[in-house]
Amino acid sequence: LEGLTAGFASSSQDIDAGIPVQFTNSVLGNPSVYEWDFEDDGVIDSVEPNPSFTYRLMGSYSVRLKVQYINSSGTVLHSDELILSEYIQVRGTNIPGGDQLGVWVLAGSPYNITGTITIPVNEMLTINPNVQVNIVNSDTSIKVQGTLQVDTADFRSISRGSWKGIEIEESAVNTSIQNSTIRDAELPIWIKSNATIQDCVISKDSLMTYQNEVGIMIDGNASPTLNTLDIRNYSTGVHVNSGTTQSTPTISNIRVRNTSNSIRTDSYGIRLTGKIAPALSNVEISDFTIGLLYEGDNQVLANTPTISNIRVRNTSNSIRSNQTGILIKNLKNVTVEQDSISECVIGVMITNNQPQTANTPTISNIRVRNTSNSIRTETTGIKIDGFILPRISDVDIDDFTNGISMSGTNANTYASQPVISNIRVRNTSNSIRIDGVGLLVQDYPRISVFNDSIYGYAEAIKFINTSPTLANTPTISNIRVRNTSNSIRNLGTGVYCGPNVNLDVKNSLIQDYAIGLHAMANSAQITSNRFVNNDSAVLIQSVLPGFNLSYNDLILLPDFDNINRIAIKADNSVGLNIANNTIINYPGLLEAQSSSINFFQNICWAQQLISAPFITANSVINASYNDIYYSNGIYAGMGNINADPLFTDPVATDYTLQYTSPCIDAGNPNLSPDPDESVPDLGAHIYLHKAAFISDQRFVMPGTMIQFTNRSIGHPVAESSYFWDFNNDGIIDSNQENPTHIFDTLGRYSITLKVTTATLVDTLYLRDYILVQSVTLPKPQNVQLSLTGNSDIRMSWSPVTQDIAGNAVTPNFYIVYSSPKPYGQYSYIGETPGITEFTHFEGAVKDQIFYVVIGFVGNSAKLREFLSRRSTIEIIDPAAPHTGVIVPTARKKK
User: Fold this and answer.
1) ∠ CA 585-587-592, rounded to 5°
2) I want to staple 110 with a disulfide (CB 3.0 to 4.6 A). Which of 92, 351, 466, 476 is the partner?
């Protein structure tokens, strides 16, 4: 060898404390000895040819390499040395593991953790703003047994891998992590006690996968506060897992995201399991198999949990076979409100597999939607399964195969009645979709559906009962069911109620279906509805006793193709009554097979004469008291007519009757009268007409003028005549609408009002309506009520000392009446011999009671005679027409 020339290089010259640096020699020659001094302190740190070294403290370090060739006798033949001044620049502080407390300051940043650290009980570690925390090894974690306070720090792994995360143990107190970033941890934050995590970003590389990866885990009865967090690329964003002790975490303003194009299974944006009552609001969840999973095990919670302002979204083009926006299992009570869910196979699903415990969730003000042009498998907006009694209101559901699907248990004892109200379920007419149902209800003994709109479904509403013995009695009111007007709809059904479903449907619109309503093997009540442009408005099969089809409009609009359309079809229905319907523009009124039907008091009118109103096969139809536009004159049957019904405005589809209509009072006189007590009208719309009036006074002294005011209904003033008889002598005293009259003689006067309008004549006779007497007492003043004992009511009042004319008077008696209602009939309960107080025994046992006190001048015989005629009196609402006796005042007990 002629000599040695020392030389070396390093893997990095600018490093973080705690990070190993690899040194590689580049010596010319063949040395036998290497001496490395990495800190220029005169200490030999390594004799390896190519060593690595870890710097623990920040600073600038010179590196010295000395090489020698020593022969076998120990003689140094060649030697060389190379010193590179300030060759290595080390940043930060090395944290080798173990207990940590005190303060990590910016000047010592970054802090490079090479082993698991622990913050002991009753100790605190504070990490100041803008400190960088580097985790060197993958098996490293931060365990908090005392207190950790972090503000604006950055936690990250500096190796190509992950680290364990931050574990906040049961003994930890007052831990707070704010405005910080936590990256690439297997379990970034594991919370076992109360803590505050706020304004943080928690993320990992989307290509990194861990077993059971969770962004934040909350265990036991911990009730931390999570606020304003962004959690990315974890298969579960937040998991709260509680046992039998209630946990009440606050989770708000959270954004949880997964990669939209990742192939994933069993991923959850937020997962709640156990006895948890969270305050959950303002959460955004993207691209998870299940956006929010809440499993309660039907445990009793101290308060009702609320899920509000949640936005769950999947990308519309993502691969998704089982994605659910919100899934709730076995939770007794929960409120889901003001949420938005889009692009899920199931928007909201609530299940309960414990048949002995009812769940009563509330769902309100949410929007569930899918894209109308997506090609998708069967989807459901809201799905209910099990012993669940929901209240669903103010919900929008767009473009799902099934809007709402409810499968109950036919439990016949309900703590509350399920309600579906003010919902809008819509499907687009041009989407490629599996035929579904707008609202499907199965095995619910009772449910109320009202003020809803369902559009674009081949089957809009469907009720099914699988029990052969327990009847279901759902109610539908004020709903709008409509198919797309240009769709192919030869199989569409607006409303279906199957066997043993005794549906009560009223005040609803069903339009543009092949069959408007299909009733099978039940005793449904179909009243006061409007069926428009349905091939057949109603299909009835195998009805049970009590079935009712009445007071409905069955309409084909003038521009609708009405060829071969039949308004009502009946099959195997015996004893069926079809009454008081208005059928417009149907060439066929009723088709019956193997049925016996009473068809009466209907109006059947059209633009063209009806040549074949009834089609029968092995059936009997008894048609009576109908108005049919029959091509051969009056259709055979008692009371039938063929006369223009004189609708109010048929062009505007207003099929109410004008007062000149021949259908008024044209029904069967032997049947129950209309509400105005007249003979039944024909058709769906009763024309109410009745004479009525009020007066400003009824108990007067001679010479008093009384004002009478007409309150008759069904008699237009301009076309009506009035005939008043004020003393029941058969002589007409006035023809004015609202006359006045003076009664000069003492006595009782019966009043008669007769009103005529065209052919309508109504008369009201009120016996002894006006009382003219020499003494008329004012009502007692200052009535006071008090409770005595447990259930007695004591009342007192000021004495009446003058009549209404100001003359001195002393009542011989005071009479007391009572009633459970403010208006209506009052019953005599006692009198006092001029004493101004009275006790009603057991009066307070009722929820409410009202009293009338009147003064009476006269002896005992006169009192008995009065009470024989007035054991009851009637108090009438001053705004309502008078039909009986009225007494001046009533007093109410609160």
Assistant:
1) 125
2) 92
Question: CB under 8 Å to 292, separation ≥6 — which residues?
Answer: 268, 269, 270, 271, 272, 283, 285, 307, 310, 312, 325, 326, 327
Give the tens place of pLDDT for each residue, 521-569.
999 999 999 999 999 999 999 999 999 999 999 999 998 887 889 999 9
Q: Which CATH architecture has domain 693-772?
A: Sandwich (2.60)
Per-residue tokens: 417: 């009645």
Q: Are 597 and 589 in contact (CB under 8 A)?
A: no
Instruction: Compute φ and ψ for 236, nearest 5 degrees.
Output: -130, 120
Q: List beta partners, residue 388.
A: 359
- The contacts of residue 41 (CB under 8 Å, 6+ apart) are none
Cis omega (within 30 of 0) for bond into 110? yes
- Closest Cα partner for 126 from 98, 150, 110? 150
Whole-prediction pTM? 0.81
Q: Are 59 and 85 in contact, with CB atoms under 8 Å apart?
A: no
Domain boundaries, the chain: 8-92, 371-522, 553-687, 693-772, 784-893
Length of the chain: 894
Q: Which residues are CB-contacts of 670 (< 8 A; sequence separation ≥ 6)? A: none
Residue with tokens 């579904």: 436
CATH code of the domain made up of 8-92: 2.60.40.10
Tell me the pLDDT tens digit for each residue of 410-457. 876 666 789 999 999 998 755 445 689 999 999 999 999 999 999 999
What class, spelled out in words, does domain 784-893 have in CATH?
mainly beta
Tokens, residue 802: 């003058």
Q: 212 Cβ partners below 8 Å, 6+ apart? A: 236
601 CA to centre of own chain: 40
Q: Cα–Cα–Cα angle for 522, 528, 530, nearest 5°?
A: 100
Query: 496 exposed, middle or buried (CB, 10 Å; 0-12, 13-18, 19+)?
Result: buried
